[in-house]
């Protein structure tokens, strides 16, 4: 498949690209120039023909909610709202079939630790820019998917771990290998309403059946560390997510 990965200067998008390049054609983009041997196109994700050109001929877009620390808070908010909308609009016009938004489980972190928080719970972001940007990015993706029927999957990622030692007491750890595995599973799964795992598929969460929204699917992604805080049943049942890192 032909895949675009945004925020190419950030650590996790780089990691995804390094793995997916083995079986897919990868195009990278960012608002700053990035040195890479993969195809790279710098883009401000404006509402113009350049964004259409960026996504033309692609099958999947992986859009990262990871913040660029060099940007002001206002620029970060603009990127995750207006620019995300522009990217979705171009994807819709160019008939890109799938859009994956990489969000964060931190927007669910305000709930008590003894509660079994699932994808059906309402996000409770703080005013921290990292959480607020992910929450607003999700909102843009959700409303666009509902209105324009673009297949959007939202992966809420736990605290990314690039080594093998878990910080004591951290119950929402996501090892980078499990994170890449989740993205790969999402790429391989048809989540559209006409697919086997879309709107008309029924899942069971805590013994109760529920249905996904049309063209909009959320999955909580974390590793099975001791006292793991967030349930990942939906990702396991729907995407075939099988995390292996246990801390």
Write a structural description.
- With 247 residues, this protein is of the alpha/beta class.
- The chain is built from 6 helices and 11 strands.
- The chain has a single domain (2-239), classed as Rossmann fold (3-Layer(aba) Sandwich).
- It has helices spanning 11-20, 49-55, 73-93, 129-148, 176-188, 233-239, and strands at 2-5, 25-30, 39-42, 60-64, 98-104, 151-157, 159-161, 173-175, 202-205, 208-211, 216-221.
- The strands form 3 sheets. The chain has a 7-stranded parallel β-sheet with strand order 3-2-1-4-5-6-11, sandwiched between helices. Strands 7-8 form a two-stranded parallel ribbon. Strands 9-10 form a two-stranded antiparallel sheet.
- Helix 1 crosses helix 5, helix 2 (49-55) crosses helix 3 (73-93) and helix 3 (73-93) runs parallel beside helix 4.
- The longest helix is centred in the middle third of the chain and has 21 residues, at 73-93.
- The chain is globular and about 50 Å long.
């Amino acid at each position: 498949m032909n895949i675009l990965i945004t925020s190419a200067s950030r650590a996790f998008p780089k990691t995804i690209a390094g793995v997916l390049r083995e079986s897919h054609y990868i195009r990278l983009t960012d608002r700053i120039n990035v040195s890479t041997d993969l195809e790279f196109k710098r883009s401000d994700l404006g509402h113009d023909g350049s964004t259409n050109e960026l996504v033309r001929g692609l099958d999947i877009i992986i859009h990262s909610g990871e913040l660029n620390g060099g940007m002001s808070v206002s620029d970060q908010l603009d990127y995750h709202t207006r620019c995300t909308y522009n990217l979705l609009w171009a994807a819709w016009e160019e008939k890109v079939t799938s859009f994956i938004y990489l969000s964060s489980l931190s927007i669910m972190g305000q709930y008590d630790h003894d509660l079994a928080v699932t994808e059906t719970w309402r996000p409770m972001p703080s005013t921290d820019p990292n959480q607020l940007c992910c929450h607003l990015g999700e909102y843009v993706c959700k409303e666009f998917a509902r209105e324009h029927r673009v297949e959007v999957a939202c992966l809420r990622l736990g605290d990314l771990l690039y080594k093998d030692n878990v910080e004591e007491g951290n119950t929402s750890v996501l090892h980078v290998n499990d994170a890449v595995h989740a993205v790969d599973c999402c790429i391989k799964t048809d989540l559209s309403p006409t697919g086997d795992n879309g709107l008309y598929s029924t899942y069971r969460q805590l013994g109760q059946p529920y249905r996904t929204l049309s063209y909009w699917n959320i999955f909580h992604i974390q590793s099975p560390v001791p006292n793991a805080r967030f349930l990942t049943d939906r990702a396991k049942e729907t995407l075939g997510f099988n995390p292996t890192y246990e801390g």
